[in-house]
């Protein structure tokens, strides 16, 4: 099922091929077990970790649906970031809170909230990925928290879980860099920022289409739950 990646180089047959690999790499019992073992941050149990995530999600999603977002923009950006990274945006990353980057972010949020034009969604993500120091692991968290039934997070651990998926004998999902020792290095995506942004944005759209195509094979209620399972499997070396 192709929707998000319609304006990329990927085809419907590419999605089918990648989805078939996904089924093989992540058998139903394995992926579902991973979701039910989800943990993050200081949470001591899966139930607590899911509850914390849902709380942050519900507040951010409510903000995206508000008529006047401006008064709480900084607060909502930071809350999601702190949930995901354990801290607020640092001095360099805070460039996102300045124009034109903040305006680009707000345009992206509005476009993805409407979620009707995949080309515009792709373009706004590409533009945001040109923000210095703030890349897909961060932007996909804000996107995901617009609507977890539609969107998912693409971070370093998720990218590791998808590392063996190929198309035309080439890895298709870029591996993101991580600070943890012993993990594969992040891929070199390109020295040209525009080229890198286009490649990563297209891969993210493909990622969403693959999740939506495969979800019916699993007893999971959203693509975000599938992402949470991949997050738990990413550190396992068998997927590298």
Strand content: under 5%
* Total domain units: 1
Oligomerization state = single chain
Which H/E pattern describes the elements? HHHHHHHHEEHH
- Number of helical regions: 10
Distance between the termini: 26 Å
Low-confidence stretches: none
The overall pLDDT, averaged over residues, is 96
How would you sum up this structure in a few lines?
The chain has 240 residues and is mainly α. It has helices at residues 12-25, 28-36, 46-64, 73-85, 101-114, 118-128, 136-144, 156-161, 193-214, 223-233, and strands at residues 166-167, 170-171.
Account of the protein in words:
- This protein is an all-alpha fold and 240 residues long.
- The protein has one domain (12-239).
- The protein contains 10 helices and 2 strands.
- The chain has a two-stranded antiparallel ribbon with strand order 1-2.
- Strand 1 (166-167) and strand 2 (170-171) form a beta hairpin.
- Helix 2 crosses helix 10 and helix 3 runs antiparallel to helix 4.
- The model has no long low-confidence stretch (mean pLDDT 96).
How are the secondary structure elements laid out?
Blueprint: H1 12-25, H2 28-36, H3 46-64, H4 73-85, H5 101-114, H6 118-128, H7 136-144, H8 156-161, E1 166-167, E2 170-171, H9 193-214, H10 223-233
Antiparallel strand pairs: 1-2
List keywords for this structure.
about 240 residues; mainly alpha; two-stranded antiparallel ribbon; 2 strands; globular
